[in-house]
From TrEMBL:
Keywords: Nucleus. InterPro entries: PAH_sf. It comes from the Eukaryota. SUPFAM superfamilies: PAH2 domain (SSF47762). The keyword rRNA-binding does not apply. One of its GO terms (cellular component) is nucleus. This is Paired amphipathic helix protein Sin3b.
Length: 98
């Protein structure tokens, strides 16, 4: 629980900096790792496995063309996260700006 609290605090502080300084947010590897840990700790195992599977398959299939079928992938991910608003918000933090 302490680790989740720290992740939540880090997420809130990052958002404050983005808003207060009006700087564009840049996703980081550590942010992605934090997202994965948060999702794993809060989701059912089957939901988490499905989420990771979608993300890995999209990355592998689209390493040369990142924009192909992004809407379909995001729709699937947001459907999985519909009952997890905290994880959905964290997911938004790891997306690259478009």
């Amino acid at each position: 629980k302490q680790r989740i609290a720290l992740l939540n605090h880090a997420h809130i502080e990052a958002m404050k900096q983005v808003v207060e300084k009006q700087q564009p947010f840049k996703p980081t590897v550590s942010g992605a790792v934090s997202f994965r840990e948060l999702a794993k700790s809060k989701m059912e195992e089957s939901e988490f496995t499905e989420l990771m599977s979608i993300m890995y398959h999209y990355k592998d299939a689209n390493s040369s063309n990142i924009n192909s079928n992004i809407v379909g992938v995001l729709t699937k991910i947001y459907c999985i996260l519909k009952n997890h608003p905290e994880i959905k918000q964290a997911f938004g933090m790891i997306l690259p700006p478009y």
